[in-house]
Every structure is written in structure tokens, then in C-alpha cells.
Amino acid sequence: MKKHSFFIFIIFFVFSSNTLAQNKTKSKKLPKKLSFGIYAPNTAFSSNSQRWSYIKNLARYVSSTLKIPCQGRAYSSAGSFAGAMGKLDFAIVDPVYVSTHRGSFKVLATSRYGGGSRAAWSLFSRLGSNFKALKGKTLVMARAGGSESSFATGLLHGEINASKYFAKIKIVPDLASAVQTVRNGAGDAVFAPNKMASGLTRVFSAGTVPNASFVQINRKLPSSVVKAARSAVRSVGSSGLGSMGGAAAGGIRFGKTTATFLSSYPGILRFKFNNFLKPTQSTYEKAPLRPNFWKD
Known about the structure:
Layout: H1 2-29, E1 34-39, H2 48-66, E2 70-74, H3 78-84, E3 90-93, H4 95-100, E4 106-111, E5 118-125, E6 138-142, H5 148-155, H6 162-165, E7 168-172, H7 175-183, E8 189-193, E9 201-210, E10 213-216, H8 223-233, E11 244-246, E12 259-261, E13 268-271, E14 276-279, H9 290-293
Parallel strand pairs: 1-2, 1-3, 6-7, 6-8
Antiparallel strand pairs: 3-10, 4-10, 4-11, 5-8, 5-9, 12-13, 13-14
């Protein structure tokens, strides 16, 4: 009887010790609170208040899942977002900002606005479909952390310097206001996702641009917290982001296209951004490229 009681005591002691150890480990790992941010001017949110509402709903969802306090904040400028990054754990981040700050984030999920991790964009105008008619006019762009002109040139496939072709590049807070500015006549053309530009005339397809990403900023978080946040962002819907899918890497073309002659094949020009070969005997500036880039 005493021997039996002894074994029961040992089992109880081991079980209790394991439970205490797990609880102690759990209390060590779980943060006291989590902070979520959103900086996404180049997305389809209709306003900054809509971004506020989305990030607060996301924080509320994670809080109910993990049973710890979570807060969400929206940022209207790259400067304010950069200044707050040291205090954020997760964020929804603009595709342009992600492209220009690689290494600062770990992408956990990607918006599927437009049906995939990249959305089709075009140049739209209120003046009709003639691109030449836009020379010397006003191009309206959403904020892109100071990269607006380079981003526009990249969307022009690097063939035209946007800051020289247009008389002015007018910077507004976000994509929704950029499109509305052109609709109202305070600008002449805008680059935007195809789904956003109803009422304007498409001048030409600009290709695809990656969607916003849900990223991890605080790399010290336990995997259980990261997993819960990733799951939450796929559960909280938004018309500005669409659904959220798996993490997708997506770069953005900036500035003038880079081209070099292949040493083993003289006279063949290789374009780095899409890796196709085009025979030509002319220089880069005079190469007959337009038929390849101005088709829809």
C-alpha cells in the first residue's frame, strides 16, 4: 500500500512540475500586449478612416484569440510610419514601401485584391486614350514615400521620364483621392488598379503591381503569436485589400529600364525586368521597343 501511494505521489509530482513549467514558459513567451499598424496609401481603401477601422478590427480579433491586449493604428505618411516601426509588432504595408525597405519586414501574408498577389494597373485619363495628349499635363500619384516619380517612370516601363514628360506630378494622400482628383478635373491622368478607375478612360496597361503585405516587424515574438496573427489577418475581410493569401514576394519596377548587351551574343539586347531577348543593331535609346510595351 505504501509503495502504491509512493508511485501515485511521483506521478502527481511529475505532472504538476510539467504543468507549472509549461505555464511558466507560456507566461514568459506571451507578450503583455501587441501593436498593429497600417501604412498603405497605394491600396484600394476609400479613406484613411477605413484603414483605421480595418486595423482596429484586426487588433480586436487577435486580442480575442490570444486573450491579450492589442491595439491598431493607421499612419498617413511614410515618416510617421517609419518613426513608429520600433514600437510595432505587425503591420499592413504599402507595396511601394515594402519594395524600398526590403529587409525591414518578414512577409506573412499578401493581399489578393484583384484576384492574385499582384493587381493589374493602368494609366487612366479624363482626356481620352491618346497618350501624346497627356504630355505637359498633370499626373496625379498617391504618396509613395518620396518614390512617386521613380514609381511612375517604372510604370511607364522605363521608356519615359515621368517628371519630364508631365508638367507636374501632383502627390495626394492615397489612391482613392488620386483617382477622384482626376475625376474632378484637378488632374489629367492617374496610375491605378483597373478595378478602381471607373469613369475614366484607360490609356494603356501598365502591367501588374504587387498588393499590400501583412508583415512581422518584431522578430522576437513566439511562433504561436505569429501563427495566430497570420490566421487572424486571413479572417478579417476588407474591401480595400480583398482576401489575404499566402506570403508572396513582389518587386516593383522603378525608374529607367536597365539593359545590357550580352557579351556572347553581340547585337542582342537583354532586358533584365522580364528576361526576353530582342535582336537589335541600334543603341538602347534608339532600340525599337515601343511595339513591345504599349500593347494591352
